[in-house]
Amino acid sequence: MSAPLLFAAPELPLGTSGKYVAAAYIVVLALILAYVAIMAVRAQRLERELDELRRDVEAARASDDDRETESVL
Amino acid sequence: MPSTTYGKGLRGLALATLITFSAALVLVFFYAPLDQTQGFVQKIFYVHVPLAIVSLCGFVFGGLLAIGYLRTGDRKWDMRSYVAIHMGLIFGIGGLITGSIWAKASWGHWWVWNEPTLVSFLIVLLLFATYQPLRFSIEDPERQSRYASVFAIVAGAFVPLNYIAVQAATAYVHPRVLTLSSANLPPSMGLTFAVSLVAFALLYVTLWKYEMAAKNARSQVRRLRRTLLGDDLARPAGRSAAPL
C-alpha cells in the first residue's frame, strides 16, 4: 500500500547535502537501536536472575520439606 | 511497600510514539518546504532541535523528581530522577552529534568553539555526564541518593539559567528560529517541527517508562531474593551506578 505513495511522492532534492541529512537521521536511528539492544540484554539478564531465584526458592523449599519429613520420622 | 507498575500503558505509549514519528518523517520529507537559504540540509533541524529541547527538559525533569526524593526520602523518586537524567544524556548526545553534522554541512566545520549556544549545550551535557560518576563514587545507598538528588536539583536549575544567559548575550549570533516570545517559522515548517517535537517527547516518555519498568522489575527480583532466601548479597554482578 505504501509503495504507490512513495512512487507518487516528489523526488527529494538530495544534492550534496543529502549525505549529511541521511547521516543525522541514521545517528538518531542508531542511538535508539543501541538503546533497545542494551535494554534487551538487560531483560535477558533479568530473566536469568528470575530463573535463578525460582531454582533457589525451589531448592530451599525442598530442603525444608526434607527437614520436616526427618523430624516427623 | 506497594509496588508501582511502570509497564502500565507502555504499549499504547509506544504505539503513539511510532505513529507520531511516522507522521513527523512524512511531514519533514514530503510536506515542509525547503529552506530558502540552507536548502535540504535544514531537514536536520527537525531532529536536532527536538533532541536538544527534550534533552534539556529531561534534565530539568530529573531535578524536579529529585526534589521528590529529598521531600519524601522514598528511593523510587531517586530512581525516577536517575532514569530521567540518563535519558536526557542519551538525547543530548543525539542532539550534539546531529548538531555537529548540521554544522559541518552548513558552516564547513564539525564544531565551532566561538558559538555560545553550542558550547553552552556542551557544558550542560558535560555537567550532567558527571552525575553517574558521582553516584558511582559513593558506596552508601542513602548518601548516594541524597548527594545525587542535590546535584540533580542544582544542575537542573542551571539549565534554564544557562539558556536565558546565552540568549541574552548572543541575540545576534546563533540563528534564532525559535524564541520564547515567537516562532519565526512559516506555518508548514512550524507544524512539522511541532509534530517532531511531540514525537521526540513521546519517545523520551516511552523510553523513560520502559527503563523504569525494567529497573523496577529488577529491584523487585532482588527484594524477593532477600525476603525469600535472606540473601544480603542480592546486588548485581559487577558494580552499577543505578539505584536499586
Largest interface: A-B, 28 and 32 residues
Question: What is the count of DSSP helices of chain A, taking H or I runs of 4+ residues?
Answer: 2
- Say how many strands of chain A there are: 0
β content of chain B, as a range? under 5%
Oligomer: heterodimer
Helix content of chain A: over 70%
**Could you describe the largest sheet of chain B, including whether it forms a barrel?**
none
Mean pLDDT level of chain B = 85
Topology:
The complex is a heterodimer of chains A (73) and B (244).
Chain A: H1 2-8, H2 18-72
Chain B: H1 10-30, H2 45-72, H3 75-107, H4 116-129, H5 131-136, H6 141-169, H7 187-229
At a glance:
The complex is a heterodimer of chains A (73) and B (244). In chain A, 85% of the residues lie in helices and 0% in strands. By secondary structure, chain A is mostly helical.
Please give a structural write-up.
The complex is a heterodimer of chains A (73) and B (244). Chain A is mostly helical and 73 residues long. Chain A has two helices and no strands. Chain A is rod-shaped, with a radius of gyration of 28 Å. Chain B is mainly alpha-helical. Helix content of chain B is 71%, strand content 0%. The model of chain B has no long low-confidence stretch (mean pLDDT 85). The chains are: A mainly alpha (73), B mainly alpha (244).
Which features does this protein show?
heterodimer; A: mainly alpha; 2 helices; rod-shaped; B: 244 residues; mainly alpha; 0% strand
